[in-house]
Here is the input.
Amino acid sequence: MTNPQERKLNVAVLLGGDSSERSVSIKSGRSVVQALNPKIYRVKVYDPSVDIPRLMRDAHELDVALIMLHGKGGEDGRIQGMLDLLGIPYQCAGPLGCAVAMHKPMSKVLFKSAGLPVAPDLLLHKGRPLDIKHITSLVPLPVVVKPATEGSSYGVAIVKKKEELLPAINAAFLLDRQVMVEKFLVGREVTAAVMGDQEPEPLPLIEIIPSEKYTFFDFSAKYLPGASQEICPAELDEKQTRIIQDMAIRAHQALELEGYSRSDFILTADGPFILETNTIPGMTETSLLPKAAKAGGYPLPAFLNKLIDLALARASNNSPNSCSIQF
Here is the structure.
């Protein structure tokens, strides 16, 4: 753990950005800034939508970055690639892991190759003809329609009637050039976070129960206080808990992730199915990851200490082959 007797570390907190999840990113970033111990860290805040030139000028002074950017531009590998060029370590996966995890269809390919159960789906491409009858013959209703690379359930719709399918697809195409139509799975929604690199530590599971007002864990159910019941640790038996935690570890490894991740599952009558993996989970007052970390013995300040230590250790291990651009 970082030694308070040593010089303060200069930490860049990246928040905001220009994705559809900007408001959540700002809340996550502010929570992180408040949780960082001022006796150990000197914090500088950057909003990439306006602060890229300042970040580049300050790069030589920064010891580590905490990326709290959700959605495109933050979780898709672009900001990670820039930080690599600047020689600034960061707490999450690198460009490849983030890009693959952000692209739901590609991540499902890797999940399947790792033996993880996934829901059947069909990938649609903007500009190509849509045959609703053909789609429903391949993925029968009810289905979940989701943009391929959005987060926080933006553009996601549960479709139970054939006449609702085309409007849902068109709405998703407003956000992405690829849209996934996926079989709707009935079961309990569980999320599993892990912390670490090649051999991550599993954190306690959380079961998510949206209130009757919400049909699923959508954006409002995620971020409005009291909109969902979140049970941590999830009330599952030891075997079920172990299976889902192991699947979260395997997903983290299959996507070549680092630092931490949070994978979402549906526990059906046939067992758990993985939905997706998040490389930069939310850190707001209603977010799931801080709850799991706290239940696992890591209050948010201690959890951030651990993530920073992991980032610095990776940078140290990679230093012989690393390069950076000076401005």
In short: Residues 320-325 have pLDDT under 50 and may be disordered. The chain is about 35% helix and 20% strand. The first helix runs from residue 22 to 35. The first strand starts at residue 9 and ends at 14.
